[in-house]
Amino acid sequence: MTVEPARNPTLLPDNSVWLRGMRWWHVGFYTALASVVLVVLLSVEGGPVRAAMFIAIAVLAGAYPFLARLEYLETWRPRVYVVLLIATVGLLAFLSGSGAVLLFIAFPQVWMFSGSPRGGLIATAVLCIVVALGQLRLFGTDPQNLQSVALQALISFLASSMLGLWIYKIIDQSEDRGQLIAQLEAARAELAYAHQEQGAMAERERMSREIHDTLAQGFTSIIMLSEAGQARLRQRTPEAPATDLETDLAAIGATARENLQEARALIASAGPTQLQGGDLLGALRRVGEASAQDGRGVRITLPDSLPPLESAQQIAVLRCAQEALSNVRRHSGADVVELVVQSSGGDLVLTVSDNGAGFAVADSPGGYGLHSMRARLAEIAGSLELRSAPGQGTSLTMTVPLAKPAPEPEAPGPEAPGPEAPGPEAPGQKTPAQEVQTQ
């Protein structure tokens, strides 16, 4: 026998009206049984018939808690209960008219525990037929009684079927709605997890980029300075002064302290320690001068001032300058590196060039540092241009768009202003860019 899937009670919340109403179904069921017992006591004389009716009622009452439960809807137990219920009502109908008292609770139960609309229709039809046969046995099969019993059975079947199918439709809609809500909640949970993963990935990428652009470069400087100091120590004679070694040790200590400050700022999610005063030009100057600690010549060309920059723009420019100088130190083998900052055409342009070995740009996909620089600049709508050739050095040009100031309204006047006579420079006027060379 094929059992169709029953309604899924797990889709109903604990406070569902269907579950809250079950306790009243229990009360109604046992009230109906008590009414049948009372009718039997009042209308049936003692003897085997009354005993059989009491036994049937007792069996049904005892089986109800073990077979007729919502958590058993997808098992065989509710079907067994429906068969037992029909048999009990039929027995009571055959032995006495008291079986009709159970019909108002039997019809809903056969629909509730049959497991499907088809099962409910079949169980309802069997129940109506059994009760009708019992009534015909008790009251006779004359045409008038037969017509009355048949009409009563037909009306009972139609009314119960219409009500049962309507309730099934409501429950199916509730289940569909419950499944939709469950799917929406699952989709919401997946979306929240995806957002969390995306945020975690972005944070990991940010941390990786910050560590690469700060701590890793600092550690690389410490290694190179210590190796240079060891080389000098091996070549040093006893009577030679220790000035160079002291310089290397001081540079190592300064770099280590700066790395420690960067690590603390990274943990606190603060900006670069060089920019905590808001002086980008000073930070670029210090970064350029620090790259000259290994004896490489560094030329730094900076303007006297810069247009206002957002914090993200300042951080991107500083980190790109650090990464570019680090690449020169690690890969180029250059003797001289030049760092130039200028503002032109509404853009801030940072150029780092060297006279090192160079390389074929088309043959080199670029490492993590170049990808990190491009990612930083892309976040602020900037761009990176790389120019290099074997034996001709390398040049990195980073362009950051600046916010254009709002134009000032022109003062109305009756006459056009004439040419101004030359005079002394206005206060605050920019002077030509300064060039600082460290050898």
Automatic annotation (TrEMBL):
Regions crossing the membrane: 24-44, 51-68, 80-107, 119-138, 150-168
Biased composition (Pro residues): 404-425
Cofactor(s) the protein requires to work: [4Fe-4S] cluster
Gene3D superfamilies from the UniProt entry: 1.20.5.1930, Histidine kinase-like ATPase, C-terminal domain
Sequence ranges assigned to domain Histidine kinase in this UniProt record: 323-404
InterPro entries recorded: HATPase_C_sf, HATPase_dom, His_kinase_dom, Sensor_HK_TwoCompSys, Sig_transdc_His_kin-like_C, Sig_transdc_His_kin_sub3_dim/P, Sig_transdc_His_kinase_ChrS
Name of this chain's protein: Oxygen sensor histidine kinase NreB
Organism: Arthrobacter pigmenti
Lineage: Bacteria, Bacillati, Actinomycetota, Actinomycetes, Micrococcales
